[in-house]
Amino acid sequence: MKYIRQISTGVSVFREAPHTDNTISNAVIIKKIPLSDLEVIDESLTEDEWTTKYLDDEPWSLKMHRTDSGLSRAREDHIKDVLDGVAQDASEQVRYDNKVALRATKP
């Protein structure tokens, strides 16, 4: 599997299947990263391994931002401050617990 990594950060930023000669140009356009800061990596990865790697490489702030759609910061604070960390239902509790765990990893 080939994917595009940003040189300055070491973060995996883009992948297309199938990978073509245009993939790196597409990464420049979509990710708005200069071509000089991108490199093609060829590595033997399964789809699951790629997904794990991509999510692990994702900046903390982006991971946290993604959690806001499932549980806003205001709702998170309400659960913490008013409901003593106990959400209204099981699915919200899982989102809350995951978000609190992610917040604890802030660099």
Report on the structure:
There is one protein chain. The chain folds into two domains: 57 residues, no CATH class; 41 residues, no CATH class. Helix content is 48%, strand content 12%. The protein is built from five helices and three strands; from the N terminus they run E-E-H-E-H-H-H-H. Helix 3 packs antiparallel against helix 5. The protein is elongated, with a radius of gyration of 18 Å. The two termini are 30 Å apart. The mean pLDDT is 83.
Give a concise summary:
The chain is α+β, with helices and mostly antiparallel strands and 107 residues long. The protein contains 5 helices and 3 strands.
Oligomer: single chain
Spatial strand sequence of the major β-sheet: 2-1-3
Helicity, as a percent range:
40-55%
Coarse structural class: alpha+beta
Low-confidence stretches: none
**Distinct helical segment count:** 5
Percent of sequence in beta strands: 5-15%
Mean pLDDT: 83
Radius of gyration from the alpha-carbon trace, in angstroms: 18 Å
User: Care to count the β-strands?
Assistant: 3
Topology pattern, helix = H, strand = E: EEHEHHHH
The coarse silhouette is: elongated
Topology record:
Blueprint: E1 2-6, E2 12-14, H1 23-31, E3 38-42, H2 47-57, H3 60-67, H4 73-81, H5 90-103
Antiparallel strand pairs: 1-2, 1-3
Helix pairs in contact: 3-5
